[in-house]
What we know:
Blueprint: H1 3-36, H2 40-56, H3 58-68, H4 70-88, H5 94-108, H6 111-122, H7 128-156, H8 174-195, H9 230-239, H10 241-257, H11 259-262, H12 264-270, H13 275-332, H14 337-365, H15 370-420
Amino acid sequence: MPQRYVIVAITAVAALLMYIDRVCISIVADPIKADLELTDRQKETALSAFFLTYALFQIPIGALADRFGPRAVLAGSIAAWSAVTALTGLAWSFGALVGIRLLLGVSEAGAYPAAATLVKRWARPEERGRFSSIVALGGRIGGAFAPALTTGIGKALAGVTIAGAAVGESGLNWRAVFVLYGAVGILVAIAFWLIARDDPPRQPVPNDTNGDATPGDGHALPTAAPPRPFGAQLLALLRSRGMWLFGLLQFCNNISWAFLVTLLPTFLKDANVEIGLRGQIQTGVLLAGCVGMLIGGVVTDRARARFGPRWGRSLPIACMMGLCACMCGVLSASPGLWLGVAALALMAFGQDLGIPSVWAYAQDVGGRNVGAALGFGNMLGNLGAALSPLLLGEVRRAGGWEAAFGLCAVCYVTAALAGLMLDASKSVDE
């Protein structure tokens, strides 16, 4: 197996673990609320806290990956977020829970920028969509199975006491779940460090290759120019119209998407769905996203080959955001439970089908600063995700879930328009 496939595979495993650790709190949010005696607003604040620091540290840690290599940054990130995940199981109050969630955001912030940098170094331009989709698919699979997995483990470990705290009224041992996930993550961090490498091996190019070389095939690749100082990187990003459109796309998109990993179990609870079925439904919805992610990598590469970098990147994003807006429109009309679940599944499918194009756009235009470029978009996107549970929670209390889904539809329409205006033929350096 070519070495670049191994690199992509272990990076996808890291993304899988990251999303398990990130999404699992949504299914145990109500048990945590009961055990720590939180209010609805305190629960929503704790869910939001992660995305705030996750957003703010995207560019700085993405720039570290550009400068010091994605291997060290990603391995360190895995170890750090795993330790913080285990610490979540020891939370004793609202303040402690929020502080731990803020730390989790910091520790996970460098993961996707570092992964994008790694993919850029190992993949050819025509492979970036597929390779990016595989890494992102790993994350989505982790997020999809996190609810059902967390519920099952929490019930299986009901008799285990963590830090002197027994299972509360919820009957779900969320503390033991977080400690177990953290321990597994440390092992994954060690494995990633042993397997991953920053760059393909460099050897002389044989005469019969005509100068063509494939990442990871043992041939020489052009030596990349070193990244610019952080201040220069940031200035280039701030001056780029494309980066602001990229950030607007992700900001609006994530307000709606974050519902799936924060408030979906609350929506199902309000529909009188019992907790075990809530986990299964959330898993099913997120699995639809996994299918979209898998198809999206192929669609991204074929669209670029067919339409070129300008429309080949922007059209898949705009079309999929439009599909998501339509599904939110259906949900705002108060359909029955299972029709609503089907609409949510199609929303997750469309959302994730467009994600490989988003990653590939950052890799196309980032030049020497792919980590910082993806980090810029992710920063604004996750500010939207941080706002999502707070904003949608308030809108729900004021106008019901119908109003919340109506707002999500407006956000997706805005994201579609921003995506349509992206131009991957113009680099950040230009």
